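Dear U.,

For the methods section draft, I wanted the exact inputs and outputs in one place so we can describe them consistently. I've listed the two proteins in the order they'll appear in the manuscript figures. Please don't edit the token lines directly; just add comments below if something needs changing.

First protein:
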Amino acid sequence: MGIPFNYPAINQRTNCPSVGWSGMCLAARFLCNIRNHNNSLKGKRHGRIDRNLIDMFALRELLQLCAKRRSLLVGKSCHGLAIHFGLVTDTVACNILINLYTKCGRNDCARHVFDAMLARSIVSWNTMIAGYTQSGEDVQALKLFQRMHREGRQLTEFTLSNIICACAAKYAINECKQLHTIAFKLALDSNSFVGTAILDVYAKCNMIKDACWVFEKMPERTLVTWSSLFAGYVQNGLHEEALCLFRNAQREGVKLTEFTLSAIISACASLALKIEGTQLHAVIVKCGFHENFFVAASLVNVYARCGQVEKSYALFAYMEQKNVVIWNAMIAGFSRHGHSWEAMILFEKMHQLCIFPNEVTYLSMLSLCSHAGLVEEGHHYFNLLISDQTVEPNVLHYSCMVDVLGRSGKTDEAWELLHKMPFEPTASMWGSLLGSCRNYNNSGLARIAAEQLFQLEPDNGGNHVLLSNVYAASGNWENVLMTRKYLKDSGAKKEIGRSWIEAKGKIHVFVVGERKHPAITDIYNKLEEIYHDMRKFAHITKIECDLHDVHDDQKEELLKHHSEKLALAFGLISLPPNIPIIIHKNLRICGDCHSFMKVAAHITKRLFIVRDTNRFHHFKDGSCSCGDFW
């Protein structure tokens, strides 16, 4: 005779055990015992219970509990018992089983249940497609959708939104356009789920105009819709448009979410908007999102990009709980500001705290070594990456390693790495090699790199200029003329050097030899005053930094009016003496301007921060944070 079993508390609505965690271990045994319990009541007119009805309700509720708790082991036990009792013909129970398996990452088991079903509802198809999409099996999701469409099954907003998400993951723009057409035909394009999914895929595929069109046509916009367009603008580099959209959202009273704020802070970081970033920080604290990992990482990033790495680190240190995204943001911040040892210490602390680096971490460390001239350390981190079984090296890591070698004068080693790596060399790699050849006068290799760049980027005039500068540095003026003529004939565009500075709430932009600024007379007078003081320190203009075929006096005059020098002079006459002067530049700062900034910082006893395309330069007391290597 078996051991008596006491039933757990029965839910009066479903005749099923209560769904507390303690009842989970009894779930499978309940299915066995409820059959015996029902059988004992057979033949009693005053208490007869329909066994099949009770078993079906019990099975459904237990499977729902397993799906909610993602309890795969108990769920499989329920599935086995259901097969034993012949209850798997129930469509609802099978749908719950599919949901259970997909939530537990077992799409193979879910598909087995799906294929074995005698009758499938729209929920069956939607759940299986959603499972594939959420686990990244986008091709399987698309194949199942095609089968569903061929069989003439009814499509719902959930079907389309899920399959469009799969297209977004694969950047399948043609398939997305076809799905957009289907949505039009079924009058589902105005549905918020479908519209948001279409908007998201257009934004991810760099079709931001189409994404905006979908956004404008939507009669109802959810918070996810707004967040998707914010993220789309930022991903496509349209940071000012993202800020304008944010102002519109505020006027319309749209509720702020952590996703919205994270995207907007990223836009402020890219534009180096210190005031707006600080204001958003206050909004974040007020809304209670300051402890969200992604929002906190964006704040660390915005302060670092605005030249305030001390505030960035203070925010990082304040966070009690940190994930790898926040660590990466702080390491990248230190890297941009030339604080190489601080970044390396953080990398070691990550290992000590068992926070494992990802591909972004290694990318930041390699970039740091590149701009600091740390070749041995660069090899060390690159070897760590290769031996790390959890991270797969990508083309960006190899590009950074090529930069590490090239910037340190090891152009031949960089050339060898380009041939050994498992990827095709990119324009970024060839550009890095060409720039290194310019710095170390390797004209032969520079010509090879330039030829590759002309094929990959025929419209980029900067590549022609770099090659011209290589020839000019070696005094080969004949090839300089030929290269510049080819640039003119090709129609490629050369980016004009610009520097800008924020003063009294306005952005002031300068180009070389600027004449249109309202305060230009005062700016030139201040610049002359600085040069006069520099003569006392025997400062000599580095005329070799000007690569025009003109007399030395003319070279000195051309260098004197570079855009960053004009921006500095304006900052000195416009900003209070107790705050740093922060200048941004769209190109790499030249050697003469770098030397000028060091001496000017010593003379004026002020801190100058220049952010060029490579990094931040902190000029103070006659020296620079980069150690004259950039």
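Second protein (the one for the lower panel):
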Amino acid sequence: MWHEKPSRNSLPPGGLSFSPAQLLASSFFSCGVSTVLQTWMGSRLPLVQAPSLEFLIPALVLTSQKPPLAIQTPGNTSLSLDLCRLPGCHDLKIWHTSFQEVSGAVTVSGLLQCALGFLGVPGRMFLYCGPLVLAPSLVVAGLFAHREVAQFCSAHWGLALLLILLMVICSQHLGSCQVLLCPWRPTSTSSTHIHIPAFRLLSVLLPVTCVWIISALMNLSVIPLQLSVPSVTPWFWLPHPGEWNWPLLTPRALAAGISMALAASTSSLCCYALCGQLLHLPPPPPHVCSRGLSMEGLGTVLAGLLGSPMGTASSFPNVGTVSLFQAGSRRVSHLVGLFCMGIGLSPKLAQLLTSIPLTVVGGVLGVTQAVVLSAGFSSFHLADIDSGRNVFIVGFSIFMALLLPRWLRENPVSIDTGWNFPDVLLRSLLAEPIFLAGLLGFFLENTVSGTLLERGLDQGHPTSFTAQQARFPLKSRKKAAQEYGLPQPIQNLCSCIPQPLRCLCPVLKDLGDEEGGPAEPGETEDLLPGFRELRPLSSREGLRSQ
């Protein structure tokens, strides 16, 4: 067993007022709560919520700046920071204050996401997010993490390649192999036999388990230095706000929180569109986008109040696994959320998960990020990619989204206005590749003139959302209205909520009254059951027919 080498910017190995295992457990708990809310009354898509780089980048920008000598706190007192000037000395006050500031930024981010979602802003903006907005964002989402994936895999390239090979074989080569379910059952008890694509459904779990066992036998497990220090870690612990310190709200934390909210919202909207595409559903309606971000905001607020340095957002790797399985189960995602909540109640179990080798993490991300990248490329055919206008928008959005963060990483002090708020805000936003790709694509797509065919729009459909919905047959749209709709008990309460919040409820034409009305509370377990339904006519074929 070997450990990571401490760096000068790492946490002090001892003396903190809380156990890092408890911090990890609180993150699991908030992710579990957010996942349950998302699958129950949020976007209703099988998306597992997890911390993402959209929160990590502003947090690193916030902590990289030199903290002020005194930070104002509520009341007439101020929190003085005595900077340590001795060689190798770690000032715990600075670390605690940094954690409080990051938690304050996470809380601000959650509150802003809730406000935007309740006002229906994400849904209204998503109406104008066409293929030339989503495709560059997905391409950048698949590309920008390649350095981190390479670093994870470099722990042991042999095992990383073995994991990738096993995932490819199980999901692609053996994906069509059907395995008889319960082969020991007597044939006389049932006249039908159930076959499932076992290798495809286990294309992640089986390779990860095998490589994890091999890593343990080769003694290659990595435990972070801060978690390897002997400490009192309880088996059972109930996370609650304010146990260590309440979040600290400063101008720097406010700026970081705004950038977190904008970047996480952009990433989550891309996840919603990609997950619907992989499940052969029409794009999520505006009320689904607004509800989804509202529930994510509530989960992020909980994470910030629990002291977590990162919020919760929809996970691109999770969407990539949906593509590998070629199925998505809302009920399974709900159970995963409950499982994460259970782990969050036991810091000891959360600490055991840190023994997962970095090689396993890098191998899984290498496959899932490739799926996201390919999904981004496949979205280009929805518009006329041969058009000079579209070629410029796609190339400019992708290149600048990758260039600006690299430039900022090479020149960290290039932005210095003399005021912490704009410095942190600009540095955080310019370091978010997905946000930059979405922002540039959205601006250019809706400001540069182009024909309806160039923009991927049909006659009579003023927005990209309505145009993409029209390409699906009526049966698929009715099914999507049921899958995206709220459970019946909550749907009955929509008439009682205030008018400004009606944007979170499905409109009457989306309820699917022509075929039996909305789904019952125990709606279909799988969003793509049995893989028996035919896919709708592709947009490429639709354009060719025109």
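Candidate sentences for the figure legend, describing the second protein: The two ends are 63 Å apart (CA to CA). Residues 1-9, 69-90, 511-546 have pLDDT under 50 and may be disordered.

Thanks,
Y.
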